[in-house]
Amino acid sequence: MLLVALRILFFRLLVAVPTLIAVSALVFVILRLLPADPAAMSLPPGATAEDLARLRAALGLDRSIPEQYLIWLGDLLSGDFGISIYFRRPVADLVSTALPNTLELVLSGLLLGVIVGVAGGLLMFRARGGRGEEALDVVSSAMMSIPEFLWALLLILAFGVAVPLLPFIGRMAPGMMTPPGVTGFLLLDSLIAGRLDVFFSLLLHLVLPAVALAIALAPLIMRVLRASLVEVAGDDFVTQARLRGLSEQRILFAHTLPNAALPTISLIGVQAGFMFGGTVLVEVIFGYPGLGNLIVDAVRNHDLPVIQLVALVYCVLVLAINAAVEVIYLLVNPRLRTH
Amino acid sequence: MPHSRRRFLKMTGGTAALAALGLPGSVLAQGAEAGQLILAYPTDVPTWDPNARSLAPVQSLYKCVFDQPLTQAPDLAVEPALVTEYSFSDDGLSLDLTFRDDVLFHDGSKMTAEDFRYTFYERPQQPVPEGGRRLDTAFLWRKVTDIAVTSPTTCTMTFSEPMPSAVTWLYFLCSYVVPKAYLEKVGLEEFQRAPVGTGPYKVVEYQQGSRIELEAFADYWNGKPAIDRVTIEIVRDPTARVAAIESRRAGAAIDVPVREADRLGQMPGLVSTIDPIADIVLLQITKNGGFKDDAVRLAAHYAINKEAINRAFFLGNATPIDAPAARGTPGYPEDFELGYSEEKAIDLLASVGYGPANPVEITFFTTNGVFPNDYDMARAIAAMWQKVGINAKVEAVEASTYQERLRAGTLPEATMYQWGNATGDPVMYAGYLLDPNSIFAAMKSEDLGEMIHPLLVEMDADKRHAGYRAVNKFAVEHGYTIGIVQAVKTIVHEERVHVTKYDNGWILPATWSIG
Question: What is the DSSP letter of B110?
């Protein structure tokens, strides 16, 4: 199985290269075609039209788009990600600081969404045909019909203001100091530093943003899992398991669920990609120092180097998730290992 | 202490038990501790190099950590800071400065005239590495030909041509003194990570886009600030800022929506202030398309009921303006009022063949959410125009699109715009907004240039101010600009927090106190 998994990863890597080039070219061209001028945005009072022309030349904006793209790609391949127009700092520094925070948020949201979604899907399946299923259906519909950013605001008003249980600003409690950066992942770094107070503060500050993201994912998993379970429950092997006298619980967890899991895994893979998009507004609302917050500033100021790298990072993450989903497929479905 | 599995389990187990019971102390800390102020603030600095970017909304943050040679009182009067005395030569080509001799940087080193020279002459002149950018101070102080240091506390700035605005620039954007020795020793990257200034607070923790932890500087030349520790939480979303102050997670929230500020001010324990500041909201006007005729542009101005806009969007707390300047500042023509008159607007439009039945068609750009009520005000103005015979198509654009169109000279007839000017000096208003040579001017009219260019080198302050008042009046009368209102600053804070309000909207915790 390891060999098959490695083969899949190798194939994915091969596909990733042209995908990344295509995505980077697309983003690059679209950004250049927009009627916006990052050079003019960043000039101070006292600058003249000649200064503007000089700056445009320095940023390469006076060259043809293919020429600009090839220069950017060449720099990228040599490890030079450029200097941010707005922040005036290396783009790589900005992204490498923000990325671990966003990954922590997305993984937390994903984990929460999967737990709630799978539990809800199983409950809906067990309650099928009854009032319980109807109630869960209403709940999941309500969860789906409200976008993440609105959930974020509702959660703040509910658990931050009305019943002030949880923090909703920033990444950790005011006055608390960031542990020394080892991995860049604050949760891990706080544990490495033995700072459990910081660790729990980080966890508490993750709760509401992660819930806001998870709420969008959980009902989808609930519905897809329930539908798959209902379909698999009608298969012959389930009837035979029942004839063998296995308990309903064992049939569900040992036979029905593993066979019904594949569509749910696909869905989680797809939704994990979307979840990165969802972080943008959620991070802004919660003042969370991740890629979403960074990209908002970058877009507002037409900071081309930052937008381009963040888009590329999102693309890499989505490709990595797709590869991971395929490997998980292999683990769950032995039949795929022979193909 | 070595980390063992047993110790780890003990610690995590114990903390988990605490968590189950409700974690105490720092972990669950959501509000301020004694002597600490938590501020919900809408913007972050792009970089901790204060000379790099001239962005008006972040000046208050820089002023916490760095000092300017001069500063301003709450009523905008100029006050000494690092510089105690200044005087121009008669020809306006040099400026003598005297500095305090008791100013320390946060690293304990003494600030001298050499640091001033480094900040305002050496750094801007430094060659720019490939891919790098010039500091904004390189543009702002481009007329400086040298700074001669005559002693640790005195120096003379010389200029290539008279620069009467030099004194104003000493308390405006980017003009923060940085430590030469420290910056040269640690390099820019480390300086941005651990900034050192002479300001009232030291940066002890910074998370980009999220949080700034400040600690009072005990050796501050103007006395240690009353508030020991300030946590600035960067909360971009206005609803979240409202929630932060309403839940008392923050001791003060800045720039909350006006209606929310009004509501919060009625809650026990909270105080709300909604005040006009020196920043202005105006329409950037061109002579393009339907606005090529003076009469149409002037009609457009007459047709705007600014009091109605004030009541609808600012609950009557804003101050309507005709000219591009804040009222009470030296360049505002106080003796001149254009007034609101639908009849005059209709008559003017009729004189050039337009009217409600035969409207002039224009495009009206506005941002949406860049400053409070921008889009809604544009829609309201478009509705007012429609009544008199101006059919405006409102288009929401990004600020970067506005800049591109401004650069290319292809802006539409009107654009809703906000201009920041903490100084109140008219050169920072009309001098940039109406000078046809300025990259910020939408109206490129040579008659304005003829009036403004002599003022840029006029050393007599009274003559200069009178000149700008005349420029502003002339510009309004010819429909070259349409002032709307002075921007509004909202601050909602706990009663225990005592706030100093500045007419330019500065938020300076060093001037605040708790208790």
Answer: B
